[in-house]
Amino acid sequence: MMSIHGQEEDIALQTRSIRDVIYEKLKEAILSEQYKAGHHLKERELAKQFGISTTPLKEALRRLEQEGLVTTSARRGTFVSSDIMNSVEEINWARSALEGVAARLAALKITDEEAGVLTDTTEQMRIYTEAKDTEQLIALNGHFHKLIRTYAKNNYIFQQIEAIHSFDRSFRKKALSHEDELERGFQEHYAIYQAIVAKDADLAEKLMIGHIRRTIEFVKESKAAAKAKS
Q1: Cα–Cα–Cα angle for 175, 142, 103, nearest 5°?
Q2: C-alpha angle 29-132-97 in degrees, rounded to nearest 5
């Protein structure tokens, strides 16, 4: 029997272009450091691995190069960038501004029913924070942010954030791998929730931007400390 994860991948392959699927798979492998800085991404080997021609693969690699995740040399080939942290950090700074606007709009537009859903989600986050259940928190944190950009009721903002959500997911996983970040992250999410349901747009935007940018700095500092120890 096919697993749910397998079904989701199968559906993705049916509803999205091969180029998009390969792009997401390669990006996730790079952001999760399955492919480390300097790794040679050999087109023929990857095409054989995915069972595709090199055409969609080249297109996927071109998109990754535009995002600063890979570098390509006409003679040497394509390699995972040695400057990924800066690229990811800069994209997440841009994301913080977008998510800040989403929080502002959600505070202005949220309905009582939507506030109830956000309340339930925040309470679930509290439960899993106390249980130190990182896996559930990663999923719930992502859901919390998606609810807010949905309640912003602005398709442009929603699509812009969705386009870079994988960078958010990568940072979230790295941040929540540190136990002391669980409670700190929850308290920040709870403050954002309170500002939104209180319809305090200025505070909601400020807290969202501050939360994301603090997380960026935390992950950056944690990575540097781990590197110094090794």
Answers
A1: 100
A2: 55
Helices (H), the chain: 4-15, 18-31, 43-50, 54-66, 84-109, 112-130, 134-151, 155-163, 165-176, 179-197, 201-229
* Chain center to CA of 34: 16
Q: In what order do the strands lie in the sheet with 77-80?
A: 40-41, 77-80, 70-73
Distance (Å, rounded) from C-alpha 221 to C-alpha 113? Answer: 39
CA distance 188 to 208: 8
pTM greater than 0.90: no
pLDDT in tens, 21-50: 898 889 888 887 788 888 999 999 999 988
- Which of 46, 219, 190, 20 is CA-nearest to residue 118? 190
Angle of helix 54-66 relative to helix 43-50, nearest 10 degrees, comes to 120
pLDDT digits (tens, 9 = 90+) for 156-174: 999 999 888 777 776 677 7
Residues above pLDDT 90, as percent of the chain: 49
